[in-house]
Amino acid sequence: MKVELATKEDINGILSLQTQIYRVDLLPDNAKIILSQLFDSNSCDVLVAKENNQIVGSVFIFYLPIPAHGKPYAFLEGLVVDKNHRNKGIGTALAQKAIELARQKNCYKMIFTSGLNRQDLHKFYQKLGFSKWGFEFRMDLS
Length: 142
Description:
Elements: E1 2-5, H1 11-18, H2 31-39, E2 44-51, E3 54-66, E4 71-81, H3 90-104, E5 110-111, H4 119-127
Parallel strand pairs: 4-5
Antiparallel strand pairs: 1-2, 2-3, 3-4
């Protein structure tokens, strides 16, 4: 298994994986266009984990510049491992590579959000060195 930066050729595999964590009917029709635009942006990296040239995991890392800090922070989003390849260290490898990239881009912190009841996910990130910090206040806009 190897973890690498995704390319536009990986779009279909990435979107296929996303349907395992998001309801299929919630993926917008223009998801391919949006993902393609992310590849052309300096504000996001997408990592994929591949086994035998098949995408078995992916994660998005968004970089948000914060003027008060003079550097960006990294926001981890959509880390998913194919349901048939879980518990093999793939998620850990993706997260560790994401942390490495964020450090290379001089980010001062990395955050992720999850539901309050996702105790399994909380433990996963705590093992990686993340800690609970603050609260998320949210307003769904659509």
